[in-house]
Amino acid sequence: MIKEQIVVTSAQMRDIEGRIFAGGMPVAALMEKVAGLISNRLKSIIPKDRTIGILVGPGHNGGDALVVARELHFQGYQVWIYQPFPKLKELTSQHLQYAQSLGIPCYQELAELPSCDFLIDGLFGFGLEREITGNIAATINHFNDWNCQIFSIDLPSGLHTDTGEVLGTAIRATHTFCLGLWKQGLLQEQALEYIGKAELIDFDIPLADIHVILGEVPKIKRITKTTVFNTLSLPLPPTTHKYKSGHLLLICGSKRYAGGAILTGLGARASGVGMLSIAVPESIKPLLVSHLPEALIIGCPETETGAISDLQLPPKTDLSSFSAIACGPGLTTDATPIVEQVINSEVPLILDADGLNILAQLGTIPTLRKRQNTTILTPHTGEFHRLFPDINYQDRVKAVQTAALQTGAVVLLKGARIAISNPEGVVWINPESTPALARGGSGDVLTGLMGGILARVVNKQVNIEDVVAAASWWHSQGGILAAKERTELGVDAFTLTQYLMRVLVDM
Ligand SMILES: NC(=O)C1=CN([C@@H]2O[C@H](COP(=O)(O)OP(=O)(O)OC[C@H]3O[C@@H](n4cnc5c(N)ncnc54)[C@H](O)[C@@H]3O)[C@@H](O)[C@H]2O)[C@H](O)CC1
Ligand SMILES: [K+]
Questions:
Q1: pLDDT in tens, 278-292
Q2: Long-range contacts made by residues 502-507, C-beta under 8 angstroms, separation at least 24?
Q3: What are the chain's domains?
């Protein structure tokens, strides 16, 4: 477990820091260490000739900011301090006194403040415990209106540490330096527009202290490149061969949605899966063959609406011949018998798109309760609501945990920050993505990619949620890479499939 993967609540952070102090580390020394690390980062970002305004709150977040103010002052930056609170914590008050004794200008009134190029937000950190109101709220709105770059210490002031919701109002940071361990609120969708670019400032919290508070396996984890590399079991063993790299069956497409089948197939191709079979209605088989010559395209009988009516597998083949099945993209909801058939099979299964809509029509929980084998659901919010009408998906972490618990499946909830839970409530959050992926077809690519990874590693000792997390990370990194080279408007789903391989090369 690496620190970048660990996610904590404010209570857990309080307990972890409590163990550090109980171990003998003086609070002031920790504050000095933390603020020194922040100052070094700021020195590498802010040119020397710029002016910096330091916003100081009543608690230790303010204390951090005052140490930063002193250190930047000694480095020769022009610094001023804004400190509107009547009562400060003892340590914060001492740092303010010292800053003033150094002659750093300190202001209590907004009207007196000189303009500045950068603001350092040390108003509130994980100690924020209630709605911000009155003139503090007005102050935060005032600084947001300055439209200058704001660096927030630990969290943008005003964000709830655990849920990421805005408590009254919040600083819109350009950059957030999260201290020690990632706060859960920074990984919630609703917080994204306030966080700006987030980075972790590691101040050497002993892993032993973390394990005592969080237990061996933290409940909520942040997907990182390490997760993905471990799960993809790269590099491949030299003695591998196509039958050892899994055999994936995709069941997708219809006369109306042939493109969905092609994109799903291209996503699977990018996964490096050994063998790929794609069951589609007979009428679009030639299309699939032309796009995916390496895949075994199975033309199936179709309904008069052009949906698969019967899974006619090749001779001596049945569903158990496959390492994994991914079913749903482009199926339309006229393929209900097919979805029932795969749900009743014993094969590890990913359901997406119309596979999920049909599952919802069949009755999500009673239908899945019958399945013993691995099941993965990959809904976007609309599909999630159809599957689980009684679950409020505003708190996405709780929503996926509840859905996974109720179904026994691993559930991925799509969005700007994908959340994944296994039935035991262990959650992965994908910390990075790009709006470029919010386009038709990119979900089909994810399904194919995920199916290919699952087929490749399902017989190895991997956690299914790690496979889903790896696919989600790989998919979003492909989108980020493509957006960097082609702008956020240039990442159609087909282009995305071309960038997926680039991701691993650049890792
Ligand atoms: N724990 C440590 O020793 C270290 C913490 N780090 C930094 O300190 C903050 C946490 O500090 P804490 O004093 O607990 O709280 P905050 O500084 O976040 O400030 C909250 C402060 O303000 C009061 N308050 C809460 N809500 C409101 C409100 N709505 N309106 C007005 N005032 C409010 C509350 O009473 C608190 O006193 C952490 O984020 C780090 O930045 C160091 O980095 C390491 C050592
Ligand atoms: K802050």
A1: 999 999 999 999 999
A2: 502/478, 503/474, 503/477, 503/478, 504/232, 504/234, 504/474, 506/481, 507/225, 507/228, 507/229
A3: 3-218 (3.40.50.10260), 225-506 (3.40.1190.20)
**What pLDDT digit, counting tens, does each position of 201-246 carry?**
999 999 999 999 998 777 899 999 988 888 987 777 777 777 778 9
Which tokens sit at 39?
A: 């100052």
Token match 């477990």: residue?
A: 1
| C-alpha to C-alpha distance for 393 and 317, rounded to whole angstroms | 40
pLDDT at 459: 85
What is the CB < 6 Å shell around ligand 1?
A: 17, 27, 30-31, 34, 57-62, 64, 89, 124-132, 136, 153-154, 179
**Residue among 223, 142, 178 nearest 38 (CA):** 178
pLDDT recorded at residue 226: 87
Pocket test for ligand 1, best of 32, 54, 56, 60 (most atoms within 8 A of CB): 60
Residues annotated in a binding site for K(+):
61, 121, 157
User: Which atom of ligand 1 is nearest to 179's Cα?
Assistant: 43
DSSP 3-state assignment of 451?
helix
ipTM of the complex: 0.92
What gap in Å lies between CA 124 and CA 157, rounded to an integer? Answer: 5
* Cα(360) to centroid(ligand 2), Å: 43
Query: Distance from the CA of 128 to the center of ligand 1, in angstroms?
Result: 6
Token output for 220: 């909520």
pTM of the model: 0.89
| Surrounding residues of ion ligand 2, Cβ less than 5 A | 61, 121, 152-153, 157
Shortest-distance ligand to the CA of residue 130: 1
Q: What pLDDT score does 147 carry?
A: 86
Q: How many helices (H) and strands (E) in the chain?
A: 18, 19
CA of 157 to the centre of ligand 1 (A): 10
Q: Can you list the residues of the chain whose pLDDT is less than 70?
A: none
Render pLDDT for 340-371 as a digit per residue (tens, 0 to 9): 999 999 999 999 999 999 999 999 999 998 89
What are the respective helix, strand and coil percentages of the chain, to the nearest 5?
45, 15, 40
Q: Ligand 1, atom 20: nearest CA belongs to which residue?
A: 127
- Do the beta carbons of residue 446 and residue 472 sit within 8 Å? yes
